[in-house]
């Protein structure tokens, strides 16, 4: 990545920022991708994998390191559903709401999950145990309704099977 | 002491979603020495987890095997291929598999996906070797002659795209594989990447050689973590084997691959949005022209093809264009990997030459609905594809026949609905999905989808139905004609087909 001289003035913004450890870590992640073209997405994935979310504080750091405007970085982070602005619950449950899963009862499953957990899609339970989200297609369309519990895809779900899986997660927590 | 029995348990994520890992663990703990091979899925997903045991008669299948039943099955003689209610017989001879023509999926489910020895033993690298023995121009000509069209949905002739890239001068060119398989009802890209990743590596390398590109990117959606892991491992292994790198198969040709992971944006399956995302930007659609073949990734000439398009290439080069061209009908040549999904008794992957009827596929092979209720509608080609009513199922599966019926084949996904489906709700969902996933660049899509939801709500509520139906018709026309890409341009397709075939669902309540 070629840096233009003007980039230096943006760096002033982040020096001595409130969270130096996160800043240093983000710089290290950027350095690891220095040779990659268009590396912002891989870097954001690594930030989220490490911290669980993409903090607002990383925006000026990334902007300075990658010679982008803060608006560009903010624009990318907010465009993609995957990047969270705050930490998720201990377990993230994504219920597929795409057509194939709808044909075998996905909407009923969503209603059941919302009622059982007492939250709506996109929310986290007050005790921070579960975040419930929608997803459009997990590529498990012949074995629906499907969901993703953390990174694990589960198929042939029914309300009772979902309850059992959630209970198992709660026991492991 | 006899040699341990070889047992296959798929590592495909559909099989994992119904407990394949637990099944493998139970089998290993069953007491007898066995060799467990984690293969891809055979694609008969209703039988997953499908356990196969190697016997003198061939590979005997058992499925669906629930983890709790492994102990009983072993006691009943599973490891000797004994009969059982879950025994499916010799897997290769099952009509569902025997009736297919597998070119893309020739190795999927048969081999260990990450074994280079398996890959070579089953014909791998024959296509690349033949390609490297010829000129790049000859390779492009062979692909053109095969009649291969883009399998991502648009059906553009692959050879013509490659020729444009090859003929565009420039030191830097790219090959990009679009593995952002976001359409509901499609999972063939995922199954290929998880079940036979080296085929994609080989196909992309052939493309790179043919057009003069030295670098390729595979853009995989983040919803497919298993495919990402398998592809990354496959690329490492391919480098170690000398299949990628500075001296591909000792030919002096340089080609290398990188995996990039999406971040939950359906629109990035649109090729120009995908290029933007690969460049580290928001996945905003680009206006065309310029086409990516001339001004693509980082402004360089770029081949953008779907996984299945690129995975068809090794076989075309290995067996020659005439063999591929001999399959199919009219201008749809070769095979298409159809995916039977949704409310279907026997769902999975069915690769066959173009021309079979939709009814044959859904009823004869798919066994109609899983619920046992009558079929009411079938959506073909993903969320932007038309709903075909039961009476229209005799349509032959080929690009032009679908186009003339106001539908599209797309990526070959077929989603079945039974008679409980509310088609007004599905039409509303099409608009809701478009509103959620629109990149926002053009107004017909960004605003039109939101208005579409509102208008459908008013129609269903009985509010001036005639006036609002006319308004919805106008809106659909505007979105079709005025949108920058297929997202806004094709969202009216499911909406209009639902209106055409199921008008009572919208208005009969009043």
Task: Give a written overview of the molecule.
The complex is a heterodimer of chains A (173) and B (510). Chain A has two domains: 5-79, no CATH class; 91-172, Glutaredoxin (3-Layer(aba) Sandwich). Chain A has eight helices and four strands. Chain A has helices spanning 8-14, 20-32, 40-51, 58-66, 70-79, 99-102, 106-117, 159-172, and strands at 91-96, 130-135, 147-149, 152-154. In chain A, strands 2-1-3-4 form a four-stranded mixed beta sheet, covered by helices on one side. In chain A, helix 2 packs parallel to helix 4. The N and C termini of chain A lie far apart (43 Å). Chain B has helices at residues 13-16, 20-28, 70-75, 95-98, 116-121, 126-132, 136-146, 158-167, 188-195, 197-211, 225-241, 271-278, 307-319, 321-325, 358-365, 399-404, 423-437, 443-460, 465-482, 486-490, 492-501, 503-507, and strands spanning 5-8, 34-37, 51-55, 58-62, 87-90, 174-179, 215-220, 256-261, 302-306, 328-329, 332-333, 335-342, 348-353, 375-380, 387-389, 413-418. Chain B has four domains: 5-98, Glutaredoxin; 116-325, 3-Layer(aba) Sandwich (Rossmann fold), CATH 3.40.50; 328-418, Ubiquitin-like (UB roll), CATH 3.10.20; 423-507, de novo design (two linked rop proteins), CATH 1.20.1440.230. The termini of chain B are far apart. At the A-B interface, helix 3, helix 5, helix 6 and strand 4 of A face helix 1, strand 8, strand 12, strand 16 and helix 17 of B. Chain B: InterPro entries: NADH-UbQ_OxRdtase_51kDa_CS, Nuo51_FMN-bd, Nuo51_FMN-bd_sf, Nuop51_4Fe4S-bd, Nuop51_4Fe4S-bd_sf. Chain B: It comes from Phytohabitans flavus. Chain B: One of its GO terms (molecular function) is FMN binding. Chain B: This is Formate dehydrogenase subunit beta.
Q: Determine Rg of chain A (CA atoms, Å).
A: 20 Å
CATH superfamily of the largest domain in chain A: Glutaredoxin
Contiguous helical run count of chain A:
8
Instruction: Please tell me the CATH architecture of the largest domain in chain A by its name.
Output: 3-Layer(aba) Sandwich
**Amino-to-carboxy terminus distance of chain A:** 43 Å
Give the low-pLDDT segments of chain A.
Answer: 1-17
Helix fraction bin of chain A: 40-55%
Averaged pLDDT of chain B: 96
Highest-level CATH class of the largest domain in chain B: Alpha Beta
CATH superfamily of the largest domain in chain B: NADH-ubiquinone oxidoreductase 51kDa subunit
Strands of chain A, count: 4
What is the CATH C-level name of the largest domain in chain A? Alpha Beta
Tell me the strand percentage band of chain B.
15-25%
Structural class of chain A: alpha+beta
Greatest chain-chain contact: A-B, 43 and 61 residues
Percent of residues in helices of chain B: 40-55%
- Strand arrangement within the widest β-sheet of chain A reads 2-1-3-4
Quantity of strands of chain B, as a count: 16
């Amino acid at each position: 990545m070629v840096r233009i001289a003007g980039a230096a003035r943006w760096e002033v913004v982040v020096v001595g920022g409130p969270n130096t450890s996160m800043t240093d870590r983000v710089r290290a992640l950027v350095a690891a991708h220095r040779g990659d073209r268009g590396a912002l997405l891989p870097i954001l994935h690594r930030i989220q994998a490490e911290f669980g979310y993409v903090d607002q504080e990383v925006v000026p750091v990334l902007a300075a390191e990658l010679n982008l405007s803060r608006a560009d970085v903010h624009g990318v982070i907010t465009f993609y559903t995957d990047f969270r602005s705050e930490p998720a619950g201990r377990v993230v449950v994504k219920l597929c709401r795409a057509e194939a899963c709808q044909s075998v009862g996905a909407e009923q499953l969503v209603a059941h999950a919302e009622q059982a957990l007492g939250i709506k899609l996109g929310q986290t339970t007050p005790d921070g145990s579960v975040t419930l989200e929608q997803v459009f297609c997990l590529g498990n369309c012949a074995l629906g309704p499907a969901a993703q519990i953390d990174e694990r895809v589960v198929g042939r779900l029914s309300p009772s099977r979902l309850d059992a899986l959630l209970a198992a997660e709660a026991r492991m927590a | 002491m006899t040699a341990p029995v070889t047992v296959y348990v798929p590592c495909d994520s559909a099989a994992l979603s119904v407990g394949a890992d637990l099944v493998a663990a139970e089998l290993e703990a069953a007491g007898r020495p066995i060799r467990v091979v984690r293969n891809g899925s055979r694609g008969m997903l209703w039988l997953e987890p499908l356990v196969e045991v190697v016997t003198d008669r061939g590979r005997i299948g058992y499925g669906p095997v629930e983890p709790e039943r492994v102990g009983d099955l072993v006691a009943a003689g599973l490891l000797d291929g004994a009969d059982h209610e879950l025994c499916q017989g010799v897997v290769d001879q099952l009509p569902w598999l025997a009736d297919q023509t597998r070119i893309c999926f020739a190795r999927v489910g048969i081999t260990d996906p990450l074994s280079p020895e398996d890959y070579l033993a089953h014909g791998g690298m024959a296509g690349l070797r033949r390609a490297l023995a010829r000129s790049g121009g000859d390779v492009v000509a062979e692909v053109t002659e095969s009649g291969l069209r883009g399998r991502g949905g648009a059906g553009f002739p692959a050879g013509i795209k490659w020729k444009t890239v090859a003929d565009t001068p420039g030191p830097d060119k790219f090959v990009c594989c679009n593995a952002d398989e976001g359409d509901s009802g499609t999972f063939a890209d995922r199954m290929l990447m998880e079940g036979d990743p080296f085929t994609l590596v080989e196909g992309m390398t052939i493309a790179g050689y043919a057009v003069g590109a030295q670098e390729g990117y595979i853009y995989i959606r983040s919803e497919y973590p298993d495919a990402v892991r398998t592809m990354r491992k496959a690329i490492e292994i391919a480098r170690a084997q000398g299949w990628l790198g500075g001296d591909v198969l000792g030919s002096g040709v340089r080609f290398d691959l990188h995996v990039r992971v999406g971040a939950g944006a359906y629109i990035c399956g649109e090729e120009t949005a995908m290029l933007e995302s690969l460049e580290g930007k928001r996945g905003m659609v680009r206006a065309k022209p310029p086409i990516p073949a001339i001004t693509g990734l980082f402004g360089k000439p770029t081949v953008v093809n779907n996984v299945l398009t690129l995975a068809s290439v090794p076989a075309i080069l290995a067996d020659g264009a005439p063999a591929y061209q001999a399959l199919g009908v009219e201008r749809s040549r070769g095979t298409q990997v159809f995916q039977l999904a949704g409310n279907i008794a026997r769902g999975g992957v069915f690769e066959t030459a173009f021309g079979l009827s939709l009814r044959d596929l859904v009823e004869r092979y798919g066994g109609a609905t899983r619920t046992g209720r009558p079929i009411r509608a079938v959506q073909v080609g993903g969320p932007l594809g038309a709903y075909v009513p039961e009476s229209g199922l005799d349509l032959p599966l080929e690009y032009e026949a679908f186009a003339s019926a106001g539908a599209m084949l797309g990526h070959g996904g077929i989603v079945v609905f039974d008679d409980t489906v509310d088609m007004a709700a599905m039409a509303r969902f099409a608009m809701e999905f478009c509103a959620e996933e629109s990149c926002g660049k053009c107004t017909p899509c960004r605003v039109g989808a939101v208005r579409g939801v509102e208008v459908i709500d008013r129609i269903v509520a009985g509010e001036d139905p005639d006036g609002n139906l006319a308004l919805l018709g106008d809106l659909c026309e505007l979105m079709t004609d005025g949108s920058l890409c297929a997202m806004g341009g094709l969202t009216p397709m499911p909406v209009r087909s639902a209106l055409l075939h199921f008008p009572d669902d919208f208005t009969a309540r009043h």
